[in-house]
Specification:
This protein has 226 residues and is α/β, with parallel strands linked by helices. It has a 6-stranded parallel β-sheet, sandwiched between helices. Helix 1 crosses helix 4.
């Protein structure tokens, strides 16, 4: 993946694992729903798939279609469970608000690009303490295919009136990197989403532990204002 152009104008922002420490909670909520529905699928199998859309995770683990019958019911129950029992306990990742505020103050166009549903999105942003800093967002309803397909990245570019070569994706999973790369957008990856093995994030143009680490190094990063 080529490096971004000299003047980046837009940042496509993932939420889960990037600005909200939620990836483990998503995995646990899936495990709980699987168990309720008679599927013995351990956390260790679910966790590496977090970052993909639920429409991909569910059939990969159970063979069920997330849009029909039992699969659709499980998907809806999982979302309700996550929002009710898990989300209220979650915290922003280290430095998330400060980084997003700095990016906004520096004049970047910020567009959320997430595979989360629209119902979840606003609550995720509020829990991450950045809902007042974001003006444009895309969710699963804006894309036919979820990450790691590029649809949501392309939708975010369109909504932000951005060109791929003038944009950077800020994400935390291999699926963010793949989706952005397929749309021609380079990714700055954060390890705080749980992928501490840098080999898994090898397609990123830069790696940082968390938003605070990126903010501390921002003048030497691909987001440096030149």
């Amino acid at each position: 993946m080529p490096a971004p152009s000299k003047r980046v104008t837009g940042v496509l922002l993932d939420i889960d694992g990037t600005v909200l420490d939620s990836n483990d909670a998503h995995a646990r909520s899936w495990v709980e729903i699987f168990r309720r529905c008679g599927y013995d699928i351990p956390f260790e199998r679910v966790r590496p798939l977090i970052g993909k859309g639920g429409d991909k995770l569910l059939p990969e683990l159970t063979g069920l279609d997330s849009e029909a019958g039992k699969g659709k019911q499980m998907t809806e129950e999982r979302s309700q469970l996550f929002l009710r029992d898990y989300l209220p306990k979650l915290l922003p990742t280290n430095g998330a608000r400060d980084l997003v505020k700095r990016l906004r103050d520096d004049g970047f166009r910020l567009v959320v690009a997430t595979s989360s549903s629209g119902d979840e999105l606003h609550q995720l942003l509020r829990q991450a303490r950045i809902d007042d800093l974001i003006e444009k967002a895309t969710s699963s309803s804006d894309a036919e295919n979820s990450k790691p397909d590029p649809d949501i990245i392309q939708a975010a570019l369109k909504k932000g009136k951005l060109r791929p070569q003038d944009s950077v994706m800020l994400g935390d999973t291999p699926y963010d990197i793949e989706a952005a790369g397929r749309a021609g957008v380079p990714t700055i990856a954060l390890r705080c989403g749980g992928w501490w093995d840098d080999a898994a994030l090898a397609g990123a143009v830069a790696l940082y532990d968390d938003p605070a680490a990126l903010l501390a190094d921002i003048d030497r990063s691909p987001l440096a204002v030149r």
